[in-house]
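Reopening closed ticket. The problem is back. First fold of the pair:
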Amino acid sequence: MNNTAVAENQKSSPEILTLSPQARALRRIRDYQQIGLYKDVNPLDWEDWHWQLKNRICNREDLADY
């Protein structure tokens, strides 16, 4: 997708552009914490790439659990 197409897609989603960085962070936190397995994960851990690698879904069976 070229830059023009990306810009057009962003224009069609005004709610994304109007959210403050804090609101976007809260929205991200709320989204992952609605998954039972991740409800107790610290937001700082969630944002840490080391934690993400250790807790990634690696096979079909793990994915089926979610």
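Second fold of the pair, where the issue appears:
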Amino acid sequence: MQRSIDEKITCRKCNKLLVANSNWTKSMVTRNNRLCRYCNIKATQNQLKDKPEYRKAQTLTKRLWKRNNRGQVNASNKLRKVNKIRRTPPWADLNAIKQIYQEAAELNKIHGPGAYHVDHIIPLQGNTVSGLHVENNLQILKAVDNIKKSNKYVQQ
């Protein structure tokens, strides 16, 4: 059965209403895919992420973009640094914070560069809640886990 573009259908993953030419196309309906563009992109990335040649190409693409857009990269890095300073209260124990970062650096020496990250348990700029840059809001996580967590507050 072929669906009409005017028929109201939702994405089978995120349940968002699919709007023609906005977040889905006619070909997506005829293939009976029923995924919004965002979910379709995510599905494709998940299929490719385990292929080493894909990861290498992505790394090179990102590196080239950063080299060609140095101003944007610097502005973004500076903004993050400024926001972190703003989220550090005067009563924060800076020595304890420094100790946590040093511990993460030691773990990275043992397990390889970038193996561990210092993560804010409650993100500094989360969508639902914002935390502070203080010692009891920091944790050391494996890089993979921190990337999965992203900018979200995960209650334990």
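Update: turned out to be a display glitch only; the data is intact. The chain has a mean pLDDT of 83. The CA atoms of residues 53 and 106 lie 30 Å apart. Please close again.
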